[in-house]
Amino acid sequence: MATGFTDFDVLLLDIEGTVCPISFVKDVLFPYAVNALPKLLEEKWDDAELAQYRNAFPEEYRDDRAAFEAHFRDLVARDVKVSYLKALQGYIWKAGYASGEIKAPLFPDVAPFMKEVHASGRKIMIYSSGSVPAQKLLFGHTNAQPSDLQPLILDWFDTVNAGLKVNVASYEAILASYPEVAPGRWLFLSDNLQEVEAARGAGMQSVPVVRPGNAPLPDEHPLAKVAVDQFKLASS
Ligand SMILES: CSCCC(=O)C(=O)COP(=O)(O)O
Ligand SMILES: [Mg+2]
């Protein structure tokens, strides 16, 4: 990332492909949930605890365990960012984080950068397709020191409280939560060009990040020229 991105009041961060590798989500988080699902359904299918997640699934899957499991697996395989899947994944990941089996491998520049932004009095918020509870688990169990970075984060947005990340209206909804901050004072970082374009459409500053394991940005895309490959925002 080029230096000089100091001119913002709110830093809005994507998660997968921005603060941690895509492989952590695809090869660790997603398989953990898929593997844990059969036992969970076996033990808790009729529990009130599971009901809120089960009842959020489309009607045709709610009362049929095999169909429910097959639908879950299919959504995960296709990486569908639908809220009812994300809510259940977050619920399942809780045990993995609690036992220490899951720990979020943040890119090495992330925690120092977040600490610097926070110390300077600016706000840090998260916007991910992962559910807000899942976001909190991830930032609560990182490889950084200290491991729990939640105290640095002021607010959390997902597909439920903001909307899909490729829609301009979702960024407008986030902006509406903080009317005292002008759109141009926000900086959104993401690996996804459609998300960067949507944030820009709402008036935020936004640039794509380049990270190990991310798909290369198309050279011909105008945003590729402003892409950043590490957080150096606060270095003056
Ligand atoms: C909140 S951790 C799980 C990440 C996840 O499920 C996901 O879909 C990541 O999408 P993002 O919007 O962070 O790229
Ligand atoms: Mg992402």
In short:
The chain is of the alpha/beta class and 236 residues long.
* Uncertain runs: none
Query: What distance lies between the first and last C-alpha atoms, to the nearest angstrom?
Result: 13 Å
CATH class of the largest domain: Alpha Beta
**How many structural domains in the coordinates?**
2
Overall mean confidence score, pLDDT:
94
Helix content: 40-55%
Structural class: alpha/beta
Family: Belongs to the HAD-like hydrolase superfamily. MasA/MtnC family.
Main location: cytoplasm
Cofactor: Mg(2+)
Catalytic activity: 5-methylsulfanyl-2,3-dioxopentyl phosphate + H2O = 1,2-dihydroxy-5-(methylsulfanyl)pent-1-en-3-one + phosphate
